[in-house]
Amino acid sequence: MQKTVVLNIVGLTSNLIGANTPFLTKWIERGKLCKIKPMLPGVTCSVQSTYLTGEWPCQHGVVGNGWYFQDLCEIKFWHQSNKLVKLSKIWDVAKKKDPSFSCANMFWWHNMYSTVDYSVTPRPIYTVEGNKIPDCYTFPSNLRDELQSKLGKFPLFNFWGPKASIASSRWIAESSKIVELKFNPTLTLIYLPHLDYCLQKDGDQSLETNKSLKEIDTICKDLISFYENQGGDVILLSEYGIEPVNKVIYINRILRQYGYLKIRQENKGELLDAGASLAFAVCDHQVAHIYVNDKTILNEIYDLLSKVLGIDYLLDQKSKTIYHLNHPRSGDFVAIASEGSWFSYYYWLDDKYAPDFARTVDIHKKPGYDPSELFIDPCIKWAGLKILLALIKKKIGFRSLMNFIPLDSSLVKGSHGRIPNDPNKYPILVSQKKHLLLEGPINATDVFKIILRHLTQKLI
Predict the structure, then answer these.
(1) So what's the pLDDT on residue 253?
(2) DSSP letter at 297?
(3) Virtual torsion, Cα 326, 332, 336, 341, nearest 10 deg
(4) How far apart are CA 120 and CA 143, in angstroms?
(5) Do you find a cis peptide bond into 371, omega within 30 degrees of 0?
(6) What CA–CA distances, in Å, run from 242 to 11, 57, 261, 416, 422?
């Protein structure tokens, strides 16, 4: 099989390619660019699972970055087990065609306990003292120590949170090169998340985004040159486009005000009690799954939410099938935000009752996605000094809550998940092997076929 490398540059769209991406502009001009018709939901875990299986969420089961686990009565986000993806992946299919095939998965999600040959993914250490220590998980396990001895600890706090920066994408790029030279995999999947941060935090017209485009262009130049020198064919890929937003929708607050959502009082804060609620929303960027525990009120919930400003449309059981979201993990309804709007998970009606984790970076405790984690609360005076003091306390063994995240969702400038009205904000696929591509815009499920074509050099 032909060595193939897939660079997944999150958030890259055709309208961002230009003066700030000189290398990519020229490289793309020599090849062929296909726009990918956006799928629902246009979020990382769902899109990646569709790319890697060639099937829709109704079949692979990854209906979002998180969902309601009904047997546990808990909402869970960002879990890593590949067992959650209920179909064979592209590396399984390729290995059946050629037993000598091997694959390295560098930071694509659901990257633990899969049948991939080599994997690296974020995996912090949570200590009993309440500390979160940057680290990563690898297969084989001794690869972790080798990578971190050469590159330093994986920069977890630059991967997500207020300190998110190019450092994490650079670490991923350098670790990918080490894996290439050590194992020589046939297929390498590389996740470069840098643009995702600035586009959500600052919007696509900001100076920070211009800087970020130049930074990711530099990394792509290095990686593409490296892999082409290794005899690899490179596919440039993105998952979704990020559009400007200026309106926040609080579905859970609406459901609570009408008596459908239930909370528990704990530790001077309020917790969403999904199991006891009649209905609640799992908010994931511009898509929200609405779970209704009492099926006798389905019509009531539909009527209520269909009147909410900022909700473009609601998918019911019939229309979920049209958008390939008819899976048992999906909500009874799926709400899609209007252009310029997104969904916040907030369910408390007064900030003084917000749970302690709301003001922290804690992607696993929050019952929904929270882009406010990209910011430091602007209302905190001397925030830098206070953060330093909190870190010193942690260093010497004291428990210290890193509660510096704002509760002001209006700070967020970009979001994704819905189908953009502007085709220039569609995700893209680029290759120098023009004859192996399909005429665009292609479906998200076609990405699987195109990667397989590059591996086999055949029009499968």
Answers:
(1) 98
(2) G
(3) -150
(4) 8
(5) no
(6) 6, 21, 30, 5, 11
Q: Whole-angstrom Cα distance, residue 183 to residue 293? A: 49
223 CB-near residues (< 8 Å, 6+ apart): 5, 7, 173, 176, 177, 190, 234
Residue 140: is the preceding peptide bond cis (ω within 30°)? yes
The amino acid at residue 234 is V
Residue 189 structure tokens: 């999947």
Task: Kindly list the averaged pLDDT for each block of 10 residues, start to end, along the chain of length 460.
Answer: 98 97 98 97 98 98 98 97 97 97 98 97 86 93 97 96 96 98 98 96 94 98 98 98 97 98 94 98 98 97 97 97 98 98 98 96 95 93 80 72 89 97 97 92 97 90
Non-local (6+) Cβ contacts of 340 within 8 A are: 243, 244, 245, 246, 247
Identify the pLDDT of residue 387. Answer: 78
261/270 Cα distance (integer angstroms)? 12
Phi and psi based region of residue 395 (left: phi greater than 0; alpha: psi -120 to 50; beta: remaining): alpha
Per-residue pLDDT, 210: 96
Distance CA 336, CA 333 (A): 10
> Which residue reads 């709007």 in tokens?
341
Residue 236 β-bridge partners: 7, 430
Which pLDDT value is given to residue 379? Answer: 87
Structural domains in the chain?
4-242+421-456 (3.40.720.10), 247-412 (3.30.1360.110)
Length of the chain: 460
pLDDT of 130 reads 73
